[in-house]
Amino acid sequence: MPKKPLHRSAARKTGTASCLRKQRRTREERNRRGRAPAAGGAGSGTSSSSSKSTPDPEPVLIGRLHTDMDRNDGRTKYVLRGEGAGSVFVIDEKTGNIHVTKPLDREEKDEYRLIATATDRLTDRALEPSSQFIIRVQDINDNPPVFDEGPYSASVPEMANIGTSIIQVTATDADDPTYGNSAKLVYTLVQGQQYFSVDPQTGILRTAVPDMDRETQDQYLVLLQAKDMGGHLGGLSGTTTVTVKLTDISAERDTCTRDTLSVTAVFVLADTVCRTLHFRQRKSLFAAGIYG
Ligand SMILES: [Ca+2]
Ligand SMILES: [Ca+2]
Ligand SMILES: [Ca+2]
Hints:
Number of helices: 3
Helix content: 10-25%
Bound molecules: calcium ion
Subcellular location: Membrane
Distance between the termini: 115 Å
Strand content: 25-35%
Radius of gyration: 36 Å
Mean pLDDT: 76
Number of strands: 13
Main location: membrane
CATH architecture of the domain at 146-247: Sandwich
Shape: rod-shaped
GO molecular function: beta-catenin binding; cadherin binding; calcium ion binding
Pfam family, one: Cadherin
Domain Cadherin: 67-147, 148-267
Order of helices and strands: HHEEEEEEEEEEEEEH
């Protein structure tokens, strides 16, 4: 069967057909979706398979198409085409009500491009040019921060000064960084606060005491947390560990002393050679002056 190219050309005029009123109740949609089993909850961030056994949620009204040409006599037929039309989004062809049939995952797909058309049911003619519109999926905070590179290990010299940088840890958050605080992370220490500190914004781990002695304890296990929502109550969090080893500074001191000695020896030698050369030069010059 040949396809009708009826409304294709008109549909390209994005947002110009003003008579089709589109009521997008994204907030209502978001609230309702918040109750539905979204992929990746407050736990591990992996998709769950537990939703298999749960029944499909009721379709949720997200908006309505309407044309002023509609005389409420039942002759107007509303049609929806485009991404997700007929599956994710269904339309009541008489009322123009658009429902979403399942919870949407912004991290999977954040917008849908659709084309709305109103036709006369009897003549099948368009009542006005088709209109393209976009349904944007608003973000909810359903992804916890994840330390992709942890667990970490690092080392620092024993007796290092307070504030000595040890390592920088980084967590990522799949939520929308441009909307709200769902991906705004704050780093804190869960374990190891008595010896270390972490910069809340950068995740740089530093020493917090000056007298960590390797001979007393040569290794520390630090537990770090990244929390979204700017670290506030209700945010999601992820943790990682950093194994910090203290390196022996007495061994370093030995190496340093040997290096200094050998450098000094070379310097003295060079200086001696230099003086000798000068002396010989001057002597030869002198000689040249006498005998030249
Ligand atoms: Ca999501
Ligand atoms: Ca999200
Ligand atoms: Ca998040």
